[in-house]
Amino acid sequence: MGDAEITTSQWRLVEVGRIVLFSYGPYSGRLAAIVEIIDHKRVLVDGPSDSPDQAVPRHSAPLANVSLTPLIIPKTPRAIGNGPLRTAWQKEEVEKKWAESNWAQSRERSKKRRALTDFERFKVMRMRKQARFEEKKALAKVKASA
């Protein structure tokens, strides 16, 4: 028989060191790291952010309120203290990597879009219509020359 190829799943695992994004509750939109797994529904998180308004204190969080990100702080020991976690957080440049990710950028775009006024949404619509018209004009010119 042939050799079996065994590959790991591409799902994000709940693991110590995994960076999570709060999607609900008082820390909504903030990043934290999983420090300890309490049970199959709760984890202990800590978010030692550089800016105090983005920091998350160490507490138990239900997995239903967080989203697992692809970011990981590798080789994080279980129940790591706040000081060593902060140094690992800064060494891994978690906030910089998060800001560069597509997920964070799309969240920022949608946040900016939600903040637009009615007149600004109208201007965006007009600019999109103008761009679409220019694309159609260029495509017609290419078709006519072919």
Structure description:
With 146 residues, the protein is of the alpha+beta class. It folds into 2 domains: 18-114, SH3 type barrels, CATH 2.30.30.30; 116-145. It is 40% helix and 22% strand. The protein has helices spanning 82-92, 94-100, 102-114, 118-145, and strands at 18-22, 31-37, 42-47, 56-62, 66-72. It has a 5-stranded antiparallel β-sheet. The longest helix is centred in the C-terminal third of the chain and has 28 residues, at 118-145. The protein is extended. It holds the Pfam family Ribosomal_L14e. GO terms for molecular function: RNA binding; structural constituent of ribosome.
Can you lay out the helices and strands and say which pair or pack?
Blueprint lengths: L17 E5 L8 E7 L4 E6 L8 E7 L3 E7 L9 H11 L1 H7 L1 H13 L3 H28 L1
Pfam family, one: Ribosomal_L14e
Keywords: Ribonucleoprotein, Ribosomal protein
Family: Belongs to the eukaryotic ribosomal protein eL14 family.
Features:
146 residues, alpha+beta, SH3 type barrels, 2 domains, 5-stranded antiparallel beta sheet, 4 helices, 40% helix, 22% strand, extended
Helix content: 40-55%
The figure for the number of domains is 2
The oligomerization state is single chain
**N- to C-terminal distance:** 55 Å
Any low-confidence stretches, pLDDT <50, length ≥5? none
Short description:
This protein is of the alpha+beta class and 146 residues long.
